[in-house]
Structure formats: C-alpha cells, structure tokens
Amino acid sequence: MDKIGIIVCEKTTKICGGCMCFSAFSKKEKSFERYKGKDVEIGAFFHCNGCNSELDKDLEEKVGIIKSKDIKNVHMALCIKVECKRYDEIKDYLVRNNFNVIEGTH
C-alpha cells in the first residue's frame, strides 16, 4: 500500500479541520484523482511550523519521521498556496528531501 502526506498551512490549522482535503482524498477527486484504483492511504497530515520558523531546522524531525514511514508523495494543500509567502521555500525543502511534491489537494 502506498502512503501519502499532506502538508497544510500552520496559520489555517486554527480554523480548518482538514475536511476538504480528506473529502477530496476519500472521493479520489482533484489532485487525488491520480490514485483512483490504487491502494493508498494518508500516512501523514502535518503543517509547517509557521511563517517565522527556521524552516529547515523546524521541519527536520517531522520529515525524518515521515520518511521512516515510507511516504514518498507529499501534497501541498491549497491553504499553503493561498496563505504562505514561503510556498516555494517549503516546496524546495521537500524536494531536497527526496519527496515527490504534488501541488494541491482539493
């Protein structure tokens, strides 16, 4: 079974329950269409550590755990694209850490 991760914006976790991401995944819609007919589960649902964090340092432990769970694909949720000024920095960090980065969730 393949496992995927979803990274969301830390700011929006205060108001978002992840419902739209999980709904799109369950229905294999939007960016999750690529998984239709495949045995896949969400193995990680995590957020950046905020706009003023030291990105590399603050994500290092999370990324280590996610890698240990054999997660190779990480979806960058819509909230990051909309809210985050560090979108490209986060994407580059994930790519440097050998993840396949998929833009979007729902």
Percent helix, as a range, is 25-40%
The Cα radius of gyration reads: 13 Å
CA(first)-CA(last) distance:
22 Å
Query: Structural class, please?
Result: alpha/beta
Q: Would you state the CATH class?
A: Alpha Beta
Protein name: CGGC domain-containing protein
Domain CGGC: 3-106
InterPro entries: CGGC_dom (IPR014925)
Pfam family, one: CGGC
Detailed description of the structure:
The chain is an alpha/beta fold. It has a single domain (2-43, 54-103), classed as Rossmann fold (3-Layer(aba) Sandwich). 37% of the residues lie in helices and 22% in strands. The protein has a 4-stranded parallel β-sheet. The radius of gyration is 13 Å and the shape is globular. The relative contact order is 0.27. The mean pLDDT is 93.
Which terms summarize this structure?
4 helices, alpha/beta, 106 residues, single chain, 4-stranded parallel β-sheet, Rossmann fold, 37% helix
